């Protein structure tokens, strides 16, 4: 009978800790939810180079980064929505022209959603910083990779920015 009580107590402790982790892990995520409803627009963005090749990179060398430049060449403002990536080994962040930065976006399902809710005025440029961790998949994560970064917009012409990069990962 004591064994049953001990198992029950341990199970109750694990469930309690799990619930506490869920509660405190979700704390502060409400402010990441979309706060504005933006009207659709015909504005569009121009991306200098939507793809990049890191070439051969070593896990031992650590993270690599690349900046993509994006500009609003239209006559209308455009609103940036959610930013996310195709894999947990990749992070993305927007660097705005006023020298502020967005929160870092990651893979959907692995991180809380990152909503930008940032208006880009006509003529305004910004950069999207991609960071790739070649060691994220462990020692067997070698060989060619292809990753994507996505940014939702309110544009009917370009509802989603898609940026890509490639690399050949070695140990």
Automatic annotation (TrEMBL):
Coiled coil: none annotated. It comes from candidate division WWE3 bacterium CG22_combo_CG10-13_8_21_14_all_39_12. It comes from the Bacteria. This is DUF1573 domain-containing protein. Pfam families: DUF1573.
């Amino acid at each position: 009978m004591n064994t049953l009580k001990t198992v029950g107590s341990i199970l109750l402790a694990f469930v309690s800790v799990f619930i506490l982790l869920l509660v405190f892990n979700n704390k502060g995520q409400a402010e990441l939810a979309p706060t504005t409803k933006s009207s659709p627009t015909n504005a569009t963005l121009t991306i200098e180079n939507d793809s990049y090749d890191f070439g051969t990179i070593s896990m031992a060398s650590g993270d690599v980064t690349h900046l993509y430049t994006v500009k609003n060449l239209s006559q209308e403002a455009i609103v940036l929505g959610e930013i996310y990536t195709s894999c947990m080994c990749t992070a993305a962040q927007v660097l705005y022209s006023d020298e502020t930065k967005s929160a870092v976006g990651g893979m959907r399902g692995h991180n809380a959603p990152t909503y930008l809710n940032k208006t880009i005025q006509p003529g305004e440029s910004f950069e999207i910083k991609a960071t790739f961790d070649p060691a994220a998949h462990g020692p067997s994560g070698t060989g060619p990779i292809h990753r994507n970064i996505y940014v939702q917009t309110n544009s009917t012409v370009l509802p989603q920015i898609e940026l890509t990069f490639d690399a050949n990962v070695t140990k």
